[in-house]
Amino acid sequence: MGPEHRAWVPPAWVAWGAVVAAFAFAAVSLLWATGSTLGLDTLGGTVERLGRARDPALLSANAVALVLKVLGGVLALALVQPWGRRLPRRPLLSLGWAGAAVLVVYGVLQVTSVALVAAHVVVPDEVLSARALRWRLLLWEPWFLVWGVLLAGATLRHQRLRPAS
After folding, report:
1. Where are the alpha helices (DSSP H) in 1-129?
2. What is the mean pLDDT of the chain?
3. Which of 29, 42, 67, 111 is the least buried, fewest Cβ under 10 Å from its Cβ?
4. 1 pLDDT exceeds 60?
């Protein structure tokens, strides 16, 4: 096949974007897992209240989220760094595609649900402040979606630059 038929490869910045999204999100979880209340008002509701009370279950959930996000960052690094080429191709691609799918689906569901609340189509059990609603609609929930799209791009890039042997 000639160069004019070559499949499109996402640019490197997409793959690096997945790395940055993962580790930046992990940093936020680290803050909250260690009991920081910084930014909790942007979440609102029960999460804010439990965070301010340093609820052990919420701190533990943030610790688990931290580990998962760091692992997501390592996965993204494996897809973009030369050392990732030494890893088994099929499991790495499977993890990349599965992670991307979970993040995109979760992000779409979260953005949609918060948008429906913001549009007054759905009335939640617990009312969020206008500030928390705005932050969740414009940052927290879309972050999952953006990270998932970037991870999909990183996975596609790795797949196309390292074809099956």
Report:
1. 12-33, 45-52, 56-80, 89-118
2. 94
3. 67
4. no
